[in-house]
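Form 7-S
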Amino acid sequence: MTIDKRPTTLGELRASGWKPRSVKAELRDNLTRALRSGDTLFPGIIGFESTVIPEVVNAILAGHDMLFLGEKGQAKSRLMRQLVRFLDPAIPYLDIPADFRGGCPVHEDPTRPISAVGKAFLAEHGDRAPIAWWNREDRYAERLAPGTKFADVVGEIDPGKLAGGASMSVEESLHFGLIPRMHRAIFAMNELPDLDDLVQVGLFNILEERDVQIRGYPVRFDLDIVILFSANPSTYNRSGKVIPQLKDRIGSTIQTHYPLERDLGIDIMEQEAAREQGSDFLGGDYPVIIPRFMKEIVEQFAMTARKSKYVDHASGVSARLSIAMYRTMIASARQRAIRLNEKPAVPRISDLAHFHTAAAGKLELDMMGSHQLSEKQVLEAIAAEAIRTVFAEYVSQHGLAEIGEIFAKGVKIEVGDMLPSSHYEKLLKRVPPVWDKAFEVNASIDAGVRASCVEFVLSGLYAADRISRSQRHGTITYET
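Output:
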Protein backbone atom coordinates (compact mmCIF):
# COMPACT_ATOMS: atom_id res chain seq x y z
CA MET A 1 0.00 0.00 0.00
CA THR A 2 1.58 3.29 -1.13
CA ILE A 3 1.38 6.46 0.94
CA ASP A 4 -0.87 8.16 -1.63
CA LYS A 5 -3.34 5.26 -1.59
CA ARG A 6 -3.61 4.81 2.16
CA PRO A 7 -7.21 4.97 3.45
CA THR A 8 -8.17 8.24 5.13
CA THR A 9 -11.44 7.14 6.75
CA LEU A 10 -12.51 4.07 8.70
CA GLY A 11 -14.88 3.07 5.89
CA GLU A 12 -12.04 3.09 3.36
CA LEU A 13 -9.86 1.16 5.80
CA ARG A 14 -12.46 -1.59 6.18
CA ALA A 15 -12.90 -1.75 2.41
CA SER A 16 -9.13 -2.17 1.93
CA GLY A 17 -9.21 -5.46 3.81
CA TRP A 18 -6.92 -4.26 6.62
CA LYS A 19 -7.09 -6.45 9.71
CA PRO A 20 -5.87 -5.47 13.19
CA ARG A 21 -2.98 -7.39 14.77
CA SER A 22 -1.28 -7.18 18.12
CA VAL A 23 2.26 -5.78 18.21
CA LYS A 24 3.65 -9.20 19.09
CA ALA A 25 1.81 -10.80 16.18
CA GLU A 26 3.10 -8.04 13.90
CA LEU A 27 6.69 -8.70 14.99
CA ARG A 28 6.25 -12.45 14.65
CA ASP A 29 4.74 -12.27 11.14
CA ASN A 30 7.33 -9.87 9.76
CA LEU A 31 10.20 -11.81 11.35
CA THR A 32 8.85 -15.01 9.85
CA ARG A 33 8.82 -13.36 6.44
CA ALA A 34 12.43 -12.17 6.91
CA LEU A 35 13.56 -15.65 7.99
CA ARG A 36 11.88 -17.24 5.03
CA SER A 37 13.55 -14.86 2.56
CA GLY A 38 16.98 -15.16 4.18
CA ASP A 39 17.27 -11.47 5.08
CA THR A 40 19.95 -10.18 7.44
CA LEU A 41 17.97 -9.89 10.66
CA PHE A 42 20.13 -7.43 12.61
CA PRO A 43 22.42 -5.44 10.29
CA GLY A 44 25.61 -4.21 11.93
CA ILE A 45 25.42 -6.68 14.84
CA ILE A 46 28.64 -8.71 14.70
CA GLY A 47 29.51 -11.85 16.64
CA PHE A 48 25.99 -12.76 17.83
CA GLU A 49 24.96 -14.88 14.83
CA SER A 50 25.09 -18.23 16.63
CA THR A 51 24.51 -17.08 20.21
CA VAL A 52 22.32 -14.05 20.91
CA ILE A 53 20.32 -13.63 17.69
CA PRO A 54 18.77 -17.15 17.72
CA GLU A 55 17.52 -16.46 21.25
CA VAL A 56 16.01 -13.12 20.21
CA VAL A 57 14.27 -14.86 17.29
CA ASN A 58 12.86 -17.50 19.63
CA ALA A 59 11.58 -14.82 22.01
CA ILE A 60 9.80 -12.95 19.22
CA LEU A 61 8.24 -16.12 17.83
CA ALA A 62 7.14 -17.03 21.37
CA GLY A 63 5.52 -13.62 21.86
CA HIS A 64 7.64 -12.71 24.88
CA ASP A 65 8.62 -9.45 26.49
CA MET A 66 12.43 -9.52 26.77
CA LEU A 67 15.28 -8.64 29.10
CA PHE A 68 18.70 -8.06 27.53
CA LEU A 69 21.20 -8.98 30.23
CA GLY A 70 24.83 -8.03 29.70
CA GLU A 71 27.69 -5.74 30.60
CA LYS A 72 28.11 -2.27 29.13
CA GLY A 73 29.02 -2.01 25.48
CA GLN A 74 27.45 -5.33 24.44
CA ALA A 75 24.94 -3.90 21.92
CA LYS A 76 21.90 -4.34 24.20
CA SER A 77 20.32 -1.01 23.24
CA ARG A 78 21.12 -1.49 19.57
CA LEU A 79 19.43 -4.89 19.55
CA MET A 80 16.32 -3.43 21.19
CA ARG A 81 16.16 -0.54 18.75
CA GLN A 82 16.53 -2.84 15.76
CA LEU A 83 13.36 -4.73 16.66
CA VAL A 84 11.56 -1.80 15.03
CA ARG A 85 12.61 -3.36 11.69
CA PHE A 86 9.99 -6.06 12.22
CA LEU A 87 7.09 -3.66 12.62
CA ASP A 88 4.87 -2.76 9.67
CA PRO A 89 5.95 0.36 7.73
CA ALA A 90 2.93 2.19 9.20
CA ILE A 91 -0.30 1.39 11.01
CA PRO A 92 -3.63 3.30 10.96
CA TYR A 93 -5.04 5.09 13.99
CA LEU A 94 -8.06 7.26 14.76
CA ASP A 95 -7.17 10.86 13.96
CA ILE A 96 -8.95 12.42 16.93
CA PRO A 97 -8.62 16.23 17.05
CA ALA A 98 -7.48 17.94 20.25
CA ASP A 99 -10.80 19.79 20.58
CA PHE A 100 -12.73 16.52 20.93
CA ARG A 101 -12.90 16.01 24.72
CA GLY A 102 -9.29 17.14 25.07
CA GLY A 103 -7.89 14.74 22.49
CA CYS A 104 -6.75 11.15 22.83
CA PRO A 105 -3.57 10.11 24.68
CA VAL A 106 -2.94 7.00 22.55
CA HIS A 107 -2.82 5.97 18.89
CA GLU A 108 -6.12 4.11 18.85
CA ASP A 109 -6.77 1.04 16.73
CA PRO A 110 -9.58 2.34 14.46
CA THR A 111 -11.63 -0.81 15.01
CA ARG A 112 -10.84 -1.44 18.69
CA PRO A 113 -10.29 1.78 20.68
CA ILE A 114 -9.34 1.30 24.33
CA SER A 115 -9.82 4.80 25.76
CA ALA A 116 -13.09 6.50 26.64
CA VAL A 117 -12.26 9.30 24.19
CA GLY A 118 -11.56 6.85 21.37
CA LYS A 119 -14.74 4.90 21.97
CA ALA A 120 -16.83 8.07 22.05
CA PHE A 121 -15.20 9.39 18.86
CA LEU A 122 -15.82 6.11 17.02
CA ALA A 123 -19.42 5.97 18.22
CA GLU A 124 -20.04 9.52 16.96
CA HIS A 125 -18.33 9.26 13.56
CA GLY A 126 -18.60 5.58 12.60
CA ASP A 127 -17.16 4.80 9.17
CA ARG A 128 -16.62 8.55 8.61
CA ALA A 129 -13.98 8.61 11.36
CA PRO A 130 -10.75 10.09 9.95
CA ILE A 131 -7.69 7.88 9.82
CA ALA A 132 -3.99 8.85 10.10
CA TRP A 133 -0.91 6.66 9.89
CA TRP A 134 1.77 6.00 12.53
CA ASN A 135 5.18 5.29 11.02
CA ARG A 136 7.24 2.43 12.34
CA GLU A 137 10.22 4.66 13.28
CA ASP A 138 7.97 6.53 15.72
CA ARG A 139 6.67 3.38 17.38
CA TYR A 140 9.68 2.87 19.65
CA ALA A 141 10.53 4.73 22.83
CA GLU A 142 13.07 4.07 25.52
CA ARG A 143 13.87 5.45 28.92
CA LEU A 144 16.94 5.33 31.16
CA ALA A 145 15.94 4.11 34.62
CA PRO A 146 17.97 6.41 36.93
CA GLY A 147 15.76 9.32 37.95
CA THR A 148 12.64 7.89 36.33
CA LYS A 149 9.45 8.45 38.33
CA PHE A 150 6.12 6.66 38.30
CA ALA A 151 4.47 9.62 36.60
CA ASP A 152 7.04 9.53 33.79
CA VAL A 153 6.31 6.02 32.59
CA VAL A 154 2.87 5.15 33.96
CA GLY A 155 1.05 8.40 34.70
CA GLU A 156 -0.35 10.71 37.35
CA ILE A 157 -3.54 12.41 38.44
CA ASP A 158 -3.88 15.70 36.56
CA PRO A 159 -4.73 18.49 39.06
CA GLY A 160 -6.14 20.64 36.28
CA LYS A 161 -8.65 17.96 35.34
CA LEU A 162 -9.64 17.49 38.98
CA ALA A 163 -10.23 21.23 39.23
CA GLY A 164 -12.47 20.94 36.17
CA GLY A 165 -14.69 18.47 38.02
CA ALA A 166 -13.30 15.10 36.95
CA SER A 167 -13.36 12.29 39.51
CA MET A 168 -10.05 10.74 40.62
CA SER A 169 -11.43 7.29 39.84
CA VAL A 170 -12.03 7.82 36.13
CA GLU A 171 -9.77 7.84 33.13
CA GLU A 172 -10.48 11.48 32.30
CA SER A 173 -8.61 12.62 35.43
CA LEU A 174 -5.30 11.06 34.40
CA HIS A 175 -2.25 12.38 32.64
CA PHE A 176 -0.75 9.33 30.97
CA GLY A 177 2.93 8.44 31.10
CA LEU A 178 5.15 7.07 28.38
CA ILE A 179 4.08 3.43 28.48
CA PRO A 180 0.32 3.97 27.96
CA ARG A 181 1.16 6.42 25.19
CA MET A 182 3.16 3.66 23.46
CA HIS A 183 0.03 1.53 23.08
CA ARG A 184 0.49 -0.53 19.87
CA ALA A 185 4.26 0.03 19.95
CA ILE A 186 7.54 -0.97 21.68
CA PHE A 187 8.84 0.48 24.93
CA ALA A 188 12.33 -0.17 26.32
CA MET A 189 13.59 0.49 29.84
CA ASN A 190 17.38 0.66 30.15
CA GLU A 191 19.11 -0.35 33.42
CA LEU A 192 16.06 -1.92 35.02
CA PRO A 193 17.61 -2.47 38.51
CA ASP A 194 17.93 1.29 38.98
CA LEU A 195 14.15 1.77 38.94
CA ASP A 196 12.34 2.65 42.17
CA ASP A 197 10.27 -0.20 43.62
CA LEU A 198 7.07 1.76 43.00
CA VAL A 199 7.83 2.03 39.30
CA GLN A 200 8.72 -1.67 39.17
CA VAL A 201 5.33 -2.48 40.67
CA GLY A 202 3.69 -0.37 37.95
CA LEU A 203 5.62 -2.26 35.28
CA PHE A 204 4.69 -5.58 36.85
CA ASN A 205 1.02 -4.61 36.74
CA ILE A 206 1.28 -3.67 33.07
CA LEU A 207 3.06 -6.95 32.22
CA GLU A 208 0.57 -8.99 34.23
CA GLU A 209 -2.77 -7.25 33.59
CA ARG A 210 -1.95 -4.77 30.79
CA ASP A 211 -3.76 -2.07 32.75
CA VAL A 212 -2.80 1.13 34.58
CA GLN A 213 -3.21 1.79 38.30
CA ILE A 214 -2.55 5.32 39.53
CA ARG A 215 -2.83 6.34 43.21
CA GLY A 216 -4.86 3.24 43.96
CA TYR A 217 -7.45 3.81 41.27
CA PRO A 218 -7.46 1.01 38.68
CA VAL A 219 -8.08 2.25 35.15
CA ARG A 220 -8.33 -0.81 32.99
CA PHE A 221 -6.76 -0.49 29.59
CA ASP A 222 -6.25 -3.36 27.22
CA LEU A 223 -2.75 -2.11 26.41
CA ASP A 224 -1.08 -3.66 23.37
CA ILE A 225 2.62 -3.16 23.91
CA VAL A 226 5.95 -4.99 23.80
CA ILE A 227 8.14 -4.12 26.77
CA LEU A 228 11.91 -4.59 26.65
CA PHE A 229 14.43 -4.23 29.45
CA SER A 230 18.21 -4.07 29.72
CA ALA A 231 20.35 -4.69 32.80
CA ASN A 232 23.86 -5.46 33.98
CA PRO A 233 24.11 -8.96 35.54
CA SER A 234 25.94 -7.69 38.62
CA THR A 235 23.04 -5.45 39.65
CA TYR A 236 20.14 -7.46 38.20
CA ASN A 237 21.13 -10.56 40.18
CA ARG A 238 21.73 -8.64 43.39
CA SER A 239 19.08 -9.39 45.98
CA GLY A 240 16.49 -6.66 46.36
CA LYS A 241 17.34 -4.71 43.20
CA VAL A 242 14.48 -6.09 41.08
CA ILE A 243 11.24 -7.32 42.64
CA PRO A 244 10.80 -11.09 42.10
CA GLN A 245 7.30 -10.69 40.67
CA LEU A 246 8.61 -8.50 37.85
CA LYS A 247 11.46 -10.91 37.06
CA ASP A 248 8.94 -13.74 36.90
CA ARG A 249 6.78 -11.95 34.31
CA ILE A 250 9.59 -11.27 31.80
CA GLY A 251 9.22 -13.90 29.12
CA SER A 252 12.80 -14.28 27.85
CA THR A 253 16.19 -13.25 29.21
CA ILE A 254 18.74 -12.72 26.45
CA GLN A 255 22.36 -12.97 27.62
CA THR A 256 24.74 -10.82 25.56
CA HIS A 257 28.54 -11.00 25.52
CA TYR A 258 31.71 -9.34 24.28
CA PRO A 259 33.34 -10.53 21.01
CA LEU A 260 34.51 -14.10 21.47
CA GLU A 261 37.46 -13.61 19.09
CA ARG A 262 39.82 -10.69 18.58
CA ASP A 263 39.13 -10.57 14.84
CA LEU A 264 35.42 -10.06 15.54
CA GLY A 265 36.30 -7.23 17.91
CA ILE A 266 38.37 -5.60 15.18
CA ASP A 267 35.47 -5.90 12.74
CA ILE A 268 33.19 -4.16 15.26
CA MET A 269 35.80 -1.49 15.95
CA GLU A 270 36.27 -0.69 12.26
CA GLN A 271 32.54 -0.75 11.55
CA GLU A 272 31.66 1.60 14.39
CA ALA A 273 34.48 4.04 13.65
CA ALA A 274 33.31 4.24 10.03
CA ARG A 275 29.65 4.54 11.06
CA GLU A 276 30.32 7.47 13.38
CA GLN A 277 32.76 9.35 11.15
CA GLY A 278 31.66 8.35 7.66
CA SER A 279 32.82 5.53 5.43
CA ASP A 280 35.59 7.67 3.91
CA PHE A 281 37.11 8.78 7.23
CA LEU A 282 40.42 7.05 6.33
CA GLY A 283 40.60 8.98 3.06
CA GLY A 284 40.60 12.67 2.31
CA ASP A 285 43.56 15.01 1.89
CA TYR A 286 45.60 12.97 4.37
CA PRO A 287 44.68 9.30 3.84
CA VAL A 288 45.46 6.77 6.56
CA ILE A 289 46.95 3.28 6.24
CA ILE A 290 46.64 1.16 9.37
CA PRO A 291 48.94 -1.86 9.78
CA ARG A 292 47.13 -4.96 10.96
CA PHE A 293 49.18 -5.26 14.14
CA MET A 294 48.05 -1.78 15.25
CA LYS A 295 44.40 -2.84 15.00
CA GLU A 296 45.22 -6.01 16.91
CA ILE A 297 46.92 -4.09 19.73
CA VAL A 298 43.97 -1.71 20.16
CA GLU A 299 41.45 -4.56 20.37
CA GLN A 300 43.79 -6.62 22.53
CA PHE A 301 43.86 -3.68 24.96
CA ALA A 302 40.12 -4.06 25.54
CA MET A 303 40.39 -7.85 25.82
CA THR A 304 43.26 -7.57 28.32
CA ALA A 305 41.35 -4.98 30.36
CA ARG A 306 38.40 -7.38 30.69
CA LYS A 307 40.69 -9.92 32.34
CA SER A 308 42.86 -7.51 34.32
CA LYS A 309 43.05 -7.90 38.09
CA TYR A 310 43.04 -4.11 38.35
CA VAL A 311 39.64 -3.69 36.66
CA ASP A 312 36.18 -4.24 38.15
CA HIS A 313 34.87 -7.19 36.12
CA ALA A 314 31.30 -6.67 37.31
CA SER A 315 31.15 -3.37 35.46
CA GLY A 316 32.69 -4.69 32.27
CA VAL A 317 34.82 -2.93 29.66
CA SER A 318 32.75 -1.45 26.87
CA ALA A 319 33.48 -2.00 23.19
CA ARG A 320 33.46 1.80 23.08
CA LEU A 321 36.93 1.67 24.67
CA SER A 322 38.60 0.12 21.64
CA ILE A 323 36.52 2.26 19.27
CA ALA A 324 37.57 5.48 21.01
CA MET A 325 41.23 4.37 21.18
CA TYR A 326 41.17 3.44 17.49
CA ARG A 327 39.85 6.85 16.50
CA THR A 328 42.34 8.65 18.77
CA MET A 329 45.21 6.65 17.29
CA ILE A 330 44.14 7.59 13.76
CA ALA A 331 43.75 11.23 14.79
CA SER A 332 47.31 11.30 16.19
CA ALA A 333 48.73 9.81 12.99
CA ARG A 334 46.78 12.27 10.89
CA GLN A 335 47.96 15.22 13.00
CA ARG A 336 51.56 14.18 12.36
CA ALA A 337 50.85 13.86 8.64
CA ILE A 338 49.33 17.35 8.54
CA ARG A 339 52.16 18.95 10.49
CA LEU A 340 54.92 17.23 8.49
CA ASN A 341 53.00 17.09 5.20
CA GLU A 342 53.60 13.34 5.11
CA LYS A 343 51.32 11.06 3.13
CA PRO A 344 49.91 8.58 3.84
CA ALA A 345 49.45 8.83 7.60
CA VAL A 346 50.40 5.56 9.29
CA PRO A 347 49.67 4.97 13.00
CA ARG A 348 52.58 3.85 15.21
CA ILE A 349 52.90 2.65 18.78
CA SER A 350 53.85 6.19 19.79
CA ASP A 351 50.41 7.32 18.61
CA LEU A 352 48.98 5.24 21.45
CA ALA A 353 50.67 7.59 23.91
CA HIS A 354 47.44 9.61 23.79
CA PHE A 355 45.17 6.67 24.59
CA HIS A 356 44.55 7.92 28.14
CA THR A 357 42.23 10.60 26.76
CA ALA A 358 40.08 7.96 25.08
CA ALA A 359 40.28 5.26 27.76
CA ALA A 360 39.69 7.36 30.87
CA GLY A 361 36.27 6.69 32.35
CA LYS A 362 35.53 3.67 30.14
CA LEU A 363 36.64 1.14 32.72
CA GLU A 364 36.28 1.05 36.48
CA LEU A 365 39.12 0.10 38.79
CA ASP A 366 38.74 -2.69 41.34
CA MET A 367 38.77 -0.50 44.45
CA MET A 368 38.20 -3.48 46.76
CA GLY A 369 41.53 -5.08 45.90
CA SER A 370 44.94 -4.33 47.32
CA HIS A 371 46.20 -2.73 44.13
CA GLN A 372 46.91 0.90 44.89
CA LEU A 373 47.47 2.10 41.34
CA SER A 374 46.14 5.22 39.66
CA GLU A 375 43.95 4.91 36.61
CA LYS A 376 46.84 6.06 34.39
CA GLN A 377 49.14 3.40 35.83
CA VAL A 378 46.50 0.73 35.28
CA LEU A 379 46.01 1.82 31.67
CA GLU A 380 49.75 1.74 31.02
CA ALA A 381 50.04 -1.75 32.55
CA ILE A 382 47.17 -2.99 30.38
CA ALA A 383 48.72 -1.41 27.27
CA ALA A 384 52.06 -3.10 27.96
CA GLU A 385 50.36 -6.47 28.38
CA ALA A 386 48.39 -6.00 25.13
CA ILE A 387 51.55 -5.17 23.18
CA ARG A 388 53.38 -8.11 24.74
CA THR A 389 50.55 -10.50 23.76
CA VAL A 390 50.40 -9.38 20.13
CA PHE A 391 54.19 -9.17 19.80
CA ALA A 392 54.58 -12.74 21.08
CA GLU A 393 52.41 -13.96 18.21
CA TYR A 394 54.58 -12.18 15.66
CA VAL A 395 57.83 -13.34 17.28
CA SER A 396 56.84 -16.97 16.84
CA GLN A 397 55.97 -16.29 13.20
CA HIS A 398 58.87 -14.07 12.13
CA GLY A 399 61.69 -14.73 14.59
CA LEU A 400 61.85 -11.09 15.64
CA ALA A 401 63.63 -11.87 18.90
CA GLU A 402 66.94 -11.81 17.00
CA ILE A 403 66.64 -8.05 16.71
CA GLY A 404 67.02 -7.74 20.46
CA GLU A 405 70.59 -8.97 20.13
CA ILE A 406 71.68 -5.83 18.25
CA PHE A 407 71.07 -3.70 21.33
CA ALA A 408 73.81 -5.59 23.15
CA LYS A 409 76.20 -3.66 20.91
CA GLY A 410 75.09 -0.34 22.34
CA VAL A 411 72.57 0.70 19.71
CA LYS A 412 70.14 3.45 20.72
CA ILE A 413 67.01 4.29 18.73
CA GLU A 414 64.84 7.35 19.34
CA VAL A 415 61.17 7.32 18.28
CA GLY A 416 58.24 9.68 18.74
CA ASP A 417 54.79 10.50 17.42
CA MET A 418 56.00 13.73 15.80
CA LEU A 419 59.16 12.37 14.19
CA PRO A 420 59.00 12.00 10.39
CA SER A 421 59.18 8.59 8.78
CA SER A 422 62.47 9.63 7.14
CA HIS A 423 64.01 9.72 10.64
CA TYR A 424 63.46 5.97 10.94
CA GLU A 425 64.90 5.31 7.51
CA LYS A 426 68.14 7.06 8.50
CA LEU A 427 68.34 5.09 11.74
CA LEU A 428 68.00 1.78 9.96
CA LYS A 429 70.97 2.50 7.73
CA ARG A 430 73.18 2.29 10.85
CA VAL A 431 71.92 -1.05 12.19
CA PRO A 432 72.46 -4.66 11.00
CA PRO A 433 70.43 -6.21 8.14
CA VAL A 434 68.63 -8.39 10.67
CA TRP A 435 66.19 -5.47 10.96
CA ASP A 436 64.81 -6.48 7.58
CA LYS A 437 62.90 -9.22 9.41
CA ALA A 438 60.86 -6.50 11.11
CA PHE A 439 59.29 -5.60 7.82
CA GLU A 440 57.93 -9.10 7.34
CA VAL A 441 55.35 -8.03 9.95
CA ASN A 442 53.64 -5.80 7.39
CA ALA A 443 55.41 -6.02 4.03
CA SER A 444 55.58 -2.57 2.44
CA ILE A 445 58.03 -0.21 0.82
CA ASP A 446 56.17 2.79 2.27
CA ALA A 447 58.37 4.67 4.75
CA GLY A 448 55.42 5.30 7.11
CA VAL A 449 54.51 1.61 7.33
CA ARG A 450 58.17 0.67 7.89
CA ALA A 451 58.41 3.24 10.68
CA SER A 452 55.32 1.71 12.29
CA CYS A 453 56.91 -1.75 12.07
CA VAL A 454 60.06 -0.48 13.78
CA GLU A 455 58.12 0.97 16.70
CA PHE A 456 56.08 -2.21 17.04
CA VAL A 457 59.19 -4.36 17.31
CA LEU A 458 60.89 -1.97 19.74
CA SER A 459 57.85 -1.72 22.00
CA GLY A 460 57.41 -5.50 21.87
CA LEU A 461 61.02 -6.09 22.89
CA TYR A 462 60.58 -3.62 25.73
CA ALA A 463 57.33 -5.28 26.87
CA ALA A 464 59.18 -8.62 26.86
CA ASP A 465 61.97 -7.10 29.01
CA ARG A 466 64.57 -7.54 26.27
CA ILE A 467 65.50 -3.84 26.12
CA SER A 468 64.96 -0.71 28.19
CA ARG A 469 63.50 2.65 27.34
CA SER A 470 63.42 6.22 28.60
CA GLN A 471 60.95 8.99 27.83
CA ARG A 472 61.63 12.69 27.53
CA HIS A 473 59.84 15.58 25.84
CA GLY A 474 57.53 13.40 23.75
CA THR A 475 60.24 11.05 22.46
CA ILE A 476 61.22 7.54 23.55
CA THR A 477 64.75 6.16 23.46
CA TYR A 478 65.22 2.36 23.36
CA GLU A 479 68.54 0.81 24.44
CA THR A 480 69.98 -2.07 26.44
